């Protein structure tokens, strides 16, 4: 593993990826530490106060950890396209007595400044960024308080501005990853490039340590990524069914359902490309969903919450990478130890 990460006490090169919306929990991060790895809290969709509470829970365990933030990279939605989409999904929302036809267009920055202030005043060992490269001044300020900065990229071209902005490490995410793509150009769907090839091309472009992410769900996949030039690997989907994960029950059940045969890259839930298990909602709406993040996220969120509470897997975002068949229901430290067994 690259020296910057090993210095944090992470001897296991398989890290627990941040998964926003519930799956990443303080218990999951602590379990990663028990496996000799590093876990990340997901700061996305949380207020600074809620994130601070989770940080304190992990800090009290006396383990190394990271925090991931969504860096602002909004995709403004065209109002008429938003209204058309609201009308299209209205029947799904009405199943839970929700009216989306009068929904406001919400464009926010996910409490960005408050979270940066928190991480500067109460530094954590590692901070990673997804969706955009923060201003160099933000990265420099974090590094000045002793924080290691990781930037998510999806192409060698994105790696260059990340390195120039001062990132210490790059998380190289292939299109096989579950959940949102970290692409810096969300109006475009990322090309399907195998992770080993993407790592090789990124290694040729920059000299920073690389963390491989996207579709890695087996010991063989971990070993292949490390041979291809990664210094560490991030596992996300493989942990979604872990005992400590906060994944909703219908989401966990869908991952284990043999009838779920494919994943799709869709904008249907949030207006930004994301990989999920195909379900009724993606089948009906992927072809008509406009670009528009976070507006579509806010539009569909009440329906997704209601569906999750009702145990309905057909109207929730079943985020999953291509390796979802390997997700298992067991303690997270056992999963991470097994994934590293061929290293």
Automatic annotation (TrEMBL):
Annotated SUPFAM superfamilies: Inosine monophosphate dehydrogenase (IMPDH)
GO biological process annotation, one example: response to toxic substance
UniProt catalytic activity: 3 propionate 3-nitronate + 3 O2 + H2O = 3 3-oxopropanoate + 2 nitrate + nitrite + H2O2 + 3 H(+)
Cofactor: FMN
CDD domains, A to Z: NPD_like (cd04730)
Key words, A-Z: Detoxification, Dioxygenase, Flavoprotein, FMN, Monooxygenase, Oxidoreductase
Keyword Transmembrane helix: no
Keyword Glycoprotein on entry: no
MF annotations from Gene Ontology: dioxygenase activity; nitronate monooxygenase activity
Family label: Belongs to the nitronate monooxygenase family. NMO class I subfamily.
Protein name stated in the entry: Propionate 3-nitronate monooxygenase
């Amino acid at each position: 593993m690259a020296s910057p990460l090993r210095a944090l006490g992470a001897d296991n090169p398989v890290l627990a990826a941040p998964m926003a919306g519930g799956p990443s929990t303080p218990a999951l991060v602590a379990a990663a530490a028990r496996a000799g790895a590093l876990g990340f809290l997901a700061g996305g969709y949380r207020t600074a106060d809620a994130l601070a509470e989770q940080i304190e829970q992990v800090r009290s365990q006396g383990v190394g950890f990271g925090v991931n933030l969504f860096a602002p990279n909004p995709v403004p939605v065209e109002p008429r396209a938003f209204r058309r989409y609201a009308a299209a999904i209205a029947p799904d929302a009405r199943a839970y007595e929700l009216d989306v036809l009068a929904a406001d267009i919400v464009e926010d920055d996910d409490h960005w400044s408050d979270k940066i202030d928190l991480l500067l005043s109460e530094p954590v060992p590692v901070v990673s960024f997804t969706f955009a490269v923060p201003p160099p001044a933000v990265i420099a300020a974090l590094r000045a308080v002793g924080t290691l900065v990781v930037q998510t990229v999806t192409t060698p071209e994105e790696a260059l501005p990340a390195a120039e902005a001062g990132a210490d490490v790059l998380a190289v995410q292939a299109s096989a990853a579950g959940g949102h793509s970290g692409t810096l150009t969300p109006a475009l769907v990322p090309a399907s490039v195998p992770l080993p090839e993407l790592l090789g091309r990124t290694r040729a472009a920059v000299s920073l340590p690389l963390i491989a992410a996207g579709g890695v769900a087996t010991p063989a996949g971990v070993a292949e990524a490390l041979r291809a030039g990664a210094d560490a690997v991030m596992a996300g989907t493989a942990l979604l069914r872990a005992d400590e994960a906060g994944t909703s029950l219908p989401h966990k059940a869908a991952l284990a359902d043999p009838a779920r045969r494919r994943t799709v890259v869709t904008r249907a839930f949030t207006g930004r490309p994301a990989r999920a298990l195909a379900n009724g909602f993606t089948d009906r709406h992927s072809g008509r969903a406009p670009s528009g993040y976070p507006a579509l996220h806010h539009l569909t969120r009440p329906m997704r919450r209601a569906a999750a509470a009702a145990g309905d897997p057909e109207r929730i975002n079943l985020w999953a990478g291509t390796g979802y068949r390997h997700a298992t229901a067991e303690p997270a430290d056992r999963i991470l130890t097994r994934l590293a067994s061929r290293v």
